[in-house]
Design a protein that fits this description.
The chain has one domain (2-136): Alpha-Beta Complex (Nucleoside Triphosphate Pyrophosphohydrolase), CATH 3.90.79.10. The protein contains three helices and eight strands. The protein has helices spanning 45-57, 120-128, 130-136, and strands spanning 2-13, 16-21, 32-33, 36-38, 60-66, 70-75, 78-91, 101-105. Strands 1, 2, 3, 4, 5, 6, 7 and 8 form an eight-stranded mixed sheet that branches. Strand 1 (2-13) and strand 2 (16-21) form a beta hairpin. The protein is globular, with a radius of gyration of 14 Å. The mean pLDDT is 94.
Amino acid sequence: MKIIPVTCAILIHQNKFLAAKRSSNMSLAGFWEFPGGKVEEGESPETCLIREIKEELGIVIRIIEPMTPSVYSYSEDKNIQLFPFLCSWESGEINLAEHEKIVWITTNEINDLTWAPADIPIAKELSENWQVFRSKA
């Protein structure tokens, strides 16, 4: 079974966090996720996340700390290991290159979105520990 390492940013800004809706040309179209992407050969998860956010959103982020990784099996031969990082927005203007739309939400709104399955445990951890994470961002 292949395990694909993927990173994602839990981007906190002005007491809200960013969620991105997958576009129609992406797998799992219409689901919400924390933006990020696949770790390339020889790349660290942190380097990957900074690169992916620059490519997908056009902004520069700062990684604050890692969160609990999530493993999700999308099929018998494909597992995603999702490495989430608490992040802050450092510079740049958001410009969507892949996603259909983004929203800045509070944890009170977290259950209003249909999350991609691999992102659900991360959304739960964020919701349960919001005060701690928010204070670090």
